[in-house]
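Hi support team,

I'm opening this ticket because the web form for multi-chain structure prediction keeps timing out on my end. I have pasted the exact lines I submitted so you can reproduce it. The total is 709 residues across two entries, so I didn't expect it to be a heavy job. Is there a limit I'm missing, or should I split the entries? Thanks in advance, R.K.
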Amino acid sequence: MSDNSSTDSIADSAVETDGGSVSSAARDHRQTDYLNEEVNLLKPSTPFMRDHLRIVWIGFAVWAVIVFGPVTLTAIVPDLMRTQLPLVGFPLHYFLVAIGAPGGAWLLSIWYARKRDQLDERYGIEHGTAEDAGRPGGGEEAAAADGGVAE
Amino acid sequence: MTGAGVVLQGGLLPEGLNVSFKIAPAILVVAMLLLFLAIGYFYRVADIEGMWVAGRSIGNVENGMAIGANWMSAASYLGMAALIALSGFYGLAFVVGWSTGYFILLIFMAAQMRRFGKYTAPDFVGDRFNSDTARAIAAITTFLIGFVYAIGQARGMGLVGLYIFGDIGLPGLSGYQSMVVLMMAITVGYLTLSGMLGATKNMAVQYVILIIAFLAGLYVVGFTQGYSTILPQVEYGQLIGALSSEFSAPFVNQSYYLWIATAFSLVVGTCGLPHVLVRFYTVENERTARWSTVWGLAFILLLYLSAPAFAAFGTDLYASNIGDVYGDPGMTSAAGDVIVVLAAQLAALPTWFVGLVAAGGIAAAIATVSGLFIAGSSAIAHDIYSNIVNEDASQRMQVLVGRLSIVALGLITTLAALDPAAPIAALVSYAFSLAGAVLFPMFFLGLWWENTNRQGALAGMLTGLTIWLIPMLNEVLPTYVGTGEPYSPLLAQWVPAIGSALVAVPLVFAVTIFVSLVTAEPPMHTKRMVRQCHSPEPMSQQTTAEDVVSGSDSPADD
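Hello R.K., no limit was hit. The queue was backed up. Here is the completed structure from your submission:
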């Protein structure tokens, strides 16, 4: 888009002030004006979005296998899937669906949340607590106090 | 009914359930509700004193519990074990759909919604697509979701209420129907009282009470009957071999397709349900939004890994005390819906203890219904009445309209629940189909594709509503006005009401994308709001994407 000249120069100056010590990912981050980069799930436009979506799609693929894999296999090879498991006594298909799918989705969500935290770290992003959020009441005040956007 | 393969009769009566008035369980129900109110009242004070001022915000664990409490309706508490007992392997589609959906919510929507900063479906849709019509459709959808969801809850309350209060015998009504009327009256009373007190629900406390009631039931039944010791959630595996093969055999009465359609529908419904979104309102930042989803899923799993175990114990106890679970006559859906309570009763546990389990189910249902009614009435009073019908509406008129819509919701829910079309979990999943078909695509595309525009959203939502409505008319309407059989069995097979979102979601996506592509792009202001949702820059607690975008220089449009 064409309306980004002022914001870009601010982003650039921020990089110059504390240049050398930051990682390239963090530098990318500082040079990006996120409000001027298109959002399209299939066409990530910023380095951060690309890295984030890689995690999202891997997670989604694994999720699809965990959730719909066992039941599909049960439809294809019922005899194999109905094998009784030693110790726990469950038929395999029942175990994978009743415990495997929900439990797997939970482990996957921990994986994702951690990956996403690591991503923030790599890009030098810190999530503040409520203290730096400005005083109560004015949403707009809070917006102004928040240094997140070029302003 | 396609959902559970059972035939229903008007005067529902769970066979084997001890139907009589019992004082201790009655006290427990009242005590639980009063406790919810009292704690809500206490927290109201804390709220004003400075939820924001003192920087008190809801953290991961607490918000996770709130997410869990949200989920603890009669559908989870009673309905899930019921479908697992009645329909065996098919019932697991509910366990899977209602839990794994949270992962999709987590990776695609939780943090972005937090950043967008609008927490009711009508607000999000109206602001994202700059359209009062879109807002109105979302409001109507919210109202419908509340209504359909509540029918299932009312059925649950009516059935479990029979154990606690007996057959109160209102003239002209069966025992079950009388109980539905009584329970709905109690619900509206609870709602009014909590409104008068200004009580905010304390979801964390509610979660703890309900999960304790449920798990206590499971552990004690398992232990006293020799089924399990410390981990019934896994130990029931040993029992499966001893149960009828219908309990675990795959695709006996329900096809693979129906299984997938149901699970898919429940997953997208989870991501589209308005009351799930609200839970991200109070979190500190988007990181908390993510981690509290992880915690929330853990708290939900506590219930969801336990429900199949409860179903297995209940099925075994039913078979040895009452009769064959499957076949003719088999367990009725009414008995199935109270299997959790029935299991405790058949295990010959003391009345007060069975009452605790039953009270948990009723409290879960009442708390859920009151939340749904509040959301539904605010959609009518705020989003439709004062936004569209009468823009100069005074505060008093708005409140009046809100109250009238609660009464209306109460009445239609009661009527629809007198002779409900399906077991609890199936009824509730109609609401999930609706949320998945209409709201999920709007949330998803609205957040992930900035060029989704007003025309696309309107076309998409109308498509979703239509595709949801067709199987409802085909399958559910005839249970009220016809023979009970679907008008078109073929349609019921491929677009089942219980899983219609499997068909609807791809179509709604296609329509929304196509219409958005052939019409003008949304204004730059809107696009920047969407971009703000994905920026990794931290946002402060009370900021919305709108604030940020308006605050910065945006010389281009508007």
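A quick check on our side: Chain B touches chain A through 83 residues (CB under 8 Å). Let us know if the file doesn't open in your viewer.
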